[in-house]
Design a protein that fits this description.
alpha+beta; four-stranded mixed beta sheet; DSBA-like_thioredoxin_dom; EC 2.5.1.18; GST_Kappa/NadH; transferase
Length: 183
């Protein structure tokens, strides 16, 4: 039996391609490094004014509140839409299509889209974004590592080697050569 999992919080916005890089790398390493990866959808516009991802990030917040088991897949599909296929992720139909492609039923997705405009979801996204700011965020992604009773904030997706060092783990590049790694 390995060491107790350490917790990493990844604050991200699907409008940020750098968030996507950090997201994919941490998803691949979560089993290798034995980390408890907590995905924290945040609003880049709350940190850097005038970002256009509010509707998508509210939807991801609703997903996180009601169906956290699909948050990784829905987040990835939104990134694929905006950064691989140049599709709009601000429109409700695009968000619904991403959720369905990620494995949600049309009914689940529609219900979460409706909940995206509730004060509960809006307040949760605001609280998550404010938490990122309290950690010192000035952009996204940030990864917050909770290791040995200390908290370390790492900005960007290009500092995974530093994160590995903080965890006492080996950095094997963005695509680790492990059988149990997720690609």
């Amino acid at each position: 039996m390995g060491p107790v999992p350490r917790t990493l919080e990844l604050f991200y916005d699907v409008l940020s391609p750098y968030s996507w890089l950090g997201f994919e790398i941490l998803c691949r390493y979560q089993n290798i490094w034995n980390i408890n990866l907590q995905l924290r959808p945040s609003f880049l516009g709350g940190i850097m004014k005038d970002s256009g991802s509010l509707s998508a990030m509210r939807f991801l917040t609703a997903v996180n509140l009601e169906h956290p088991e699909v948050l990784e897949n829905v987040s990835r599909e939104l990134w694929m839409r905006v950064w691989s296929r140049d599709e709009d992720i601000t429109q409700p139909q695009s968000i619904l299509a991403a959720a369905e492609k990620a494995g949600m039923s049309a009914e689940q997705a529609q219900g979460l889209l409706e909940k995206s405009s509730t004060s509960k979801v809006k307040n949760q996204l605001k609280e998550t974004t404010e938490a990122a700011c309290r950690y010192g965020a000035f952009g996204l992604p940030i990864t917050v590592a909770h290791v040995d009773g200390q908290t370390h904030m790492v900005f960007g997706s290009d500092r995974m080697e530093l994160l590995a060092y903080l965890l006492g783990e080996k950095w094997m590049g963005p695509v680790p050569p492990a059988v149990n790694a997720r690609l």
